[in-house]
Each structure stands twice: as structure tokens, then as C-alpha cells.
Design a protein that fits this description.
This is Membrane protein. InterPro entries: LptG/LptF_permease. It comes from Flavobacterium hydatis. The chain is built from eight helices and six strands. Strands 1-2-3-4-5-6 form a six-stranded antiparallel β-sheet, with no helix packed on it. The chain has two domains: about 230 residues, no CATH class; about 90 residues, no CATH class. It is an alpha+beta fold.
Amino acid sequence: MLTIIDKYILKRYLATFTVMLLLFIPIGIVIDVSEKINKMLENKIPFLDIVVYYYNFTIYFANSLFPIFLFLSVIWFTSKLANNTEVIAILSSGISFSRFLRPYIIGASIVSVFVLLMGFYIVPAASEGFNNFRYTYLKGGGKQEMHGNNTNVYRQINDNEFIYVNSFNDVSKTAFNFTLEKFKGEQLVSKITASRIQWNPKDRTYTMYDYTKRTLGELDDKIEKAAEKKAVFTFDLEDLTPVVYIAETLSIGKLYDFIEKEKKRGSGDINVYLVVLYKKISVPISAFILTIIAVAVSSMKRRGGMGTNLAIGIALAFAFVFFDKIFGTLAEKSTFSPLFAVWFPNIAFGILAIFLLRNAKR
């Protein structure tokens, strides 16, 4: 059961974190507007689209920087408690430092569950709207950049079929130099080629131009040709080159399914998708680690007062973000383990939290 002190600290924990978000989010919006206002005016973006963009921006921004906001808010109000000798009074009453931490851990649990659910279901939709707006209106390459490398694409679409296209145009939904190979075991059964293939959204079919199908037989092969041929396929041309931020836009269940499908297809971006998946779990866990570090650093009364504690806190917070970004990028661009890369900041700062906590107890 929560005591008066527990309720007091928990209330301050959640209130300060909320105020920190409400203070920094408008600053982030103002900075973003100042950077993008010229392009918005040049492209004559509808006002409603801008409003929706900044709604998505708010969720995306808060989710990305929540560890820093949480860390600084805990340091801020705990330093105030220490400067007012409230921490000394609490500990002098016979309460151990571990017991003093309990309301902080409860607060971290509430924030973690909230961030976890946001990351699973709400942030993906906000990320999709945020990125769609950027690539549609603000980036030089427009929608073509959304699909990253869309040349010389070779994909496995199921256990028996492989697709190759020389290039893919997302705007016209057209792929060039198309090849579809079907295997039975290790033996090639048939091969379809076309100079280009185009998606027809009205009847959900594909039109192939300069079509050739070669079916392999035991004695001779069967060859079928046509200048133009319509067909129905089980794959989607957009699956050949998914948008570069596709993993960020999927809820947790869809993300698992998408990663499994991409593994079967031999996607070269699988590490990018795994980093997004692992971060959905690791980021909420960081709330506990950063809370313990913040309390251990700021619960002692220092000569420099809150300024010293905030300086230490800001340095540690940006060190955490630095490691998170560096190792995340390393996993995405190399063969470095995505699981280790995502969890390394939590492991390193978890060890630091244990060290600082022991020191604070003394």
C-alpha cells in the first residue's frame, strides 16, 4: 500500500515528466516550422495536412526523445527534494534508500507500460503520417526516395517463386525487365519474362508487355509469347521495394509477420527492421535504468545545487542517446548483431546504474 511519501514522490514524478513534455514539444514544433516553412509555402500544402502532420510529429517527437525528457524530469524534481533537505529527512526517518526508490520504480512502470502500448499501436500510425508528409512535400526526391534502392531488385516471394526487375517506378506502378521464375525443389519449372509489367488497380490485375513464358518439359520446352498479356499474381509490386520506413509504420503483430516474410525473401534490409522491432521493447525498459541513475545522481545535496545535477544529467542523457544512435546505425549498415546493438546502451547504463546506486546507498 502506498504511503503519503510514496504518493507525494509518485505525483511529482508523473507531473514533472508531463510538464517536461508539454514544455519541449512546442519548442520542437517551433523549430520544425522555422526549418520547413519555406518549403511548405512553395509547395502550397493544404492547412489541414499541416495540422495532421504536426499531430503526428508530436507523437513521433515525444516517443523518440522520451528517455531524455524522463531522465531530466527525475533529476529536476529529485534535486529540488535534495536541496530542500527532504531526501535527508526521509532517509533519517528510518526509510532505506531502496525503499525510497519504490515510488520512482512505480512511476517508471507506469511510463514504461504507456510507452510500450504507444510503440505497439499508436506510434506506427503517427510515424506513417509523419514520414509520408516529409517524402511527399518536403524531400527533394519526393515519393521516389520513399522506396530507397529500386533498381536490380531480386526477391523471393514464396517458397517456390522468385522475381527480378531491373527497375521499379512507384508513381506509375510499373516494373521494367520483369522475370518470374518458378521452381519445384531445386528444378526450374517455368520462367516468365516481360519488358515491363504494370499494375491495374481497377481490376487488380497485371499487364505484361513483350510477354514470354517458357515451361520446361522432360523432352522439349513449351514457349508462349504475346505482345501484351494480362494476369493475376499473388505478389504486390510495392513489396519488391518497400518504403524505407515501412517497419516504423507497422503494429507489433504486423511487424513480426513482415519480418518473417522479408527473411524468406532474403531482404538486404532485415537488420533495419529488426532494430525497429527490438527498440519497441528496449526503449520502455530504459525508463527503469534512467530513473535509477537519475535518483542516484540527484539525491545527494551538492555545492553547485541543481545546476551541477542537471549538468551531469544532460551529459549522461546525451551519452545514452549517442550510444543508442551509433549502435543502431552500426547494426543497420553492417553485419553487427541488431539485438546486441539495440540492447547495448541498456546493458552499459544498467551497469552504471548498479554502481551509482551502491554509491548512493553508502
